[in-house]
Write a structure and sequence with these properties.
The chain is an alpha/beta fold. It has a single domain, classed as Undecaprenyl pyrophosphate synthetase, CATH 3.40.1180. The chain is 44% helix and 13% strand. The protein has a six-stranded parallel beta sheet, with helices on both faces. It binds farnesyl diphosphate. Farnesyl diphosphate binds next to α3, α5, β2 and α6.
Amino acid sequence: MKALFDQMQPSDSDWALAKSIDPERLPAHIAVIMDGNGRWANRRSLPRVAGHKAGIAPVRNSVESCARLGIEVLTLYAFSVENWKRPRHEVETLWRLLRIYIRREMPSLMRNNIRLAAIGRLSALPEMVQDELRDAVFATRNNTGLQVNLAINYGGRAELTDAINRMLKEGLTSIDEASVSDYLYTAGLPDPDLLIRTSGELRVSNFLLWQIAYAEIYVTETLWPDFNRTELLRAIVDYQKRDRRFGGLSPRREQLVEALPTR
Ligand code: FPP
C-alpha cells in the first residue's frame, strides 16, 4: 500500500478512506464486472460506444490503483461470449478500444511492474487484436507485481467446458476440485476474494463461475465510466468488514459455541 500513499496527500479526499484499509487483509484477487457503459452514454444522449470509450479511464485508474495497493490479481470482464450479439459497430469499437488501451498503457504497465494476461476463447478474436494481446502479454511476462487478466470472449460455462474437454483429451479418468482449478484459464491464481459489479445489477453474468464460489460480492449503483479510486477503496473497506466463514463459523461464534454448557 505504500506506493498508493506515495502518490497521495493527506489533504486528498481519499486519504482517510485509504488509511482505514488494513494492508494485512487486502483481497488477493479482485474481479470486476464493468457494467453500465451503455446507460452512461444514454443518459447523456450519446451513442453507446461513447460509454465504452469513457470506460477506458476507469480501467486505467483501477489497474494503477490495484498495483499501488499491492493487490495480486485483477480480472476485468471486458467482453463476454454473449457480447457478439451486439451490433457489429459496437463490437468493432470494443476491439478498437482494446487495442488503443493496450498500446497506450504499455509504458504504464512496465513502469508499474504489471503483468498482462488474457483469458477467454481468444482464437475467435480478430487477428489484429490477438496479435496486440500476444505482444503485450509477452512484453510484460517477467513483471512481478499485479497480474491483470482481461477476460475477453469469456464465459464461465465456456471455460468449464474447455477445461473438461482438455481433461478428457488428456485421458483423465478421475478428477478432484484442485484438478478442475488446474485446467481453468486462471490455473495457479488465487480465486477472487472480492467481486465488484457496477451499475446496480444483481447478476454474476457467467463470470468466473467456478472461481467465485466464496467471493464477497460488492455491487455499486455507479456506472462503470464513473467508477474511480474512491469507489475501489470503498469496495475494499466494505470487503474488510465482511465475516468470511467459507461455510464454517467465524472465530467469535466458534468461541461462543465452545463456551456453551454441554448438557
Ligand atoms: C458493459 O456495459 C461493458 C462492456 C460490455 C464492455 C466493457 C468495455 C470497456 C470498459 C472498455 C474497454 C475495455 C478495456 C479492457 C480497455 P454495457 O454496454 O452492457 O452497459 P449497459 O448495461 O448500460 O448497456
